[in-house]
Amino acid sequence: MLRGGVSQRSKVKDQRLENHSEAKPVPILASCQESISQAAAAIASGGIGAIPTETVYGLGADAVNPVAVARIYEAKGRPGDNPLILHIASREDFFRLADNPPSYAHALIDAFWPGPLTLVTKKKPGLQPWLGGHPNRKADTIGIRMPSHPMALTVIKASGCFIAAPSANKAGTPSPTRADHVAADFGFGEIDFILDGGAVPGGLESTVVDVTGEVPVILRPGAISPEMAAKVTGLEPLLLSETTLAPRAPGMKYRHYAPKAPMMLLVGDERDIAAYIAAQCASVQAEKIGILVTSQTRAMLDTIPVNNSAAVLTLGDKTSPETIARNLYACLRQFDILNVDIIYAEGPSQDGLGLAIMDRMKKAAEGRVIHVSN
Ligand code: TXA
Ligand code: MG
Prior knowledge:
α10 links the parallel β13 (about 290-295) and β14. The longest helix is centred in the first third of the chain and has 20 residues, at about 1-20. Residues about 1-20 have low confidence and may be disordered. The chain has helices spanning about 1-20, 35-45, 65-75, 90-95, 105-110, 150-160, 180-185, 225-235, 270-285, 295-300, 320-340, 355-365; strands spanning about 30, 50, 60, 85, 115-120, 140-145, 165, 195, 205-210, 215-220, 240, 265, 290-295, 310-315, 340-345, 370. Helices cover about 35% and strands about 15% of the residues. α2 (about 35-45) packs across α6 and α9 crosses α10 (about 295-300). An 11-stranded mixed sheet has the order 1-8-2-3-7-4-6-5-9-10-11, with helices on both faces. It has a 5-stranded parallel sheet with strand order 14-13-15-12-16, sandwiched between helices. The protein folds into 2 domains: about 25-205, DHBP synthase, CATH 3.90.870; about 265-370, 3-Layer(aba) Sandwich (Rossmann fold). The relative contact order is 0.14. It starts with a helix and ends with a strand. It is an alpha/beta fold. It contains 12 helices and 16 strands. It binds threonylcarbamoyladenylate (TXA) and magnesium ion (MG). Magnesium ion (MG) binds near residues 167 and 175.
């Protein structure tokens, strides 16, 4: 059953890789003032390309250019019902786009912009009916973010555009945290350039908060935690997963962040997780196993005989969720390169940033969570 699933999924991804192995590589612009100006000019004249932000790389286009925006959907293989975030470089721009935002939205902006927070708001009357979504559709709301990455802010300002940008990966794959991740997903022609800002500091996509109602609703957890939002707004935000509301972030219903091989998410203490992994390695000798663990569990594994052909990657110190967030997607992509058949991954705690990490890991594992204890 599992093996059948593996080969089917592998086929889909391998086809994607084959398509691009032949393609000319996308030009990578080095991190310098001239490259930043080049990227901004390309976007202003209707091109699309990857730019670094503090969360993940985004695939940017002039948000009011329907041809460029349609190209983003095409290049990513993104369904048309999944809207895009508009990236802005000043708070004033938010008030040009948002219709009558509640006072708690102002509090969130004051506390967290520029930064990893997207606000979904009602649109000002008079804006293009499709703005924020696919040009063939009508969008009543709009997702807006002011990033803090200096290169992103400079590109937005220099282009003079609102930049529509989803994460710069093919739909369904882990978001890119380095320029070479973008280059692995796209060929030249699909996108026009990659602006290389090195490894991003954050590593997980922004917190998406719907501010159209009486209280904030967190549509996607991120580095701005529910506790942080509650503190500055004085309101207890709802988590989409805990509400009975119809899915409000269309993107959340699609398969996401998934490596090629099926992943099992292990929850428990490090000793039990290490013992479980060792037992799996002993019983499934024939497969190439990927193991993704914290440094603490890695140290435990060193004391247990583990299948030699297993590929062990380390997320980072258990007590540093920031490090784990920064490393997660690069590790998932590395398992694709190593061509593992199955992945056992340790899930960290759910506190603070851990909520967002676990959200992404559960999606990467397509819900396969195993609680291990002895
Ligand atoms: O950190 C980030 O947010 C990165 C960087 C590049 O800014 N962007 C990103 O974009 O992750 P994307 O498109 O991969 O994810 C945006 C999420 C999707 O789940 C989408 O459905 C949701 O935000 N979203 C965007 N606009 C929305 C809207 N108007 N209403 C509801 N959800 C929206
Ligand atoms: Mg994405």
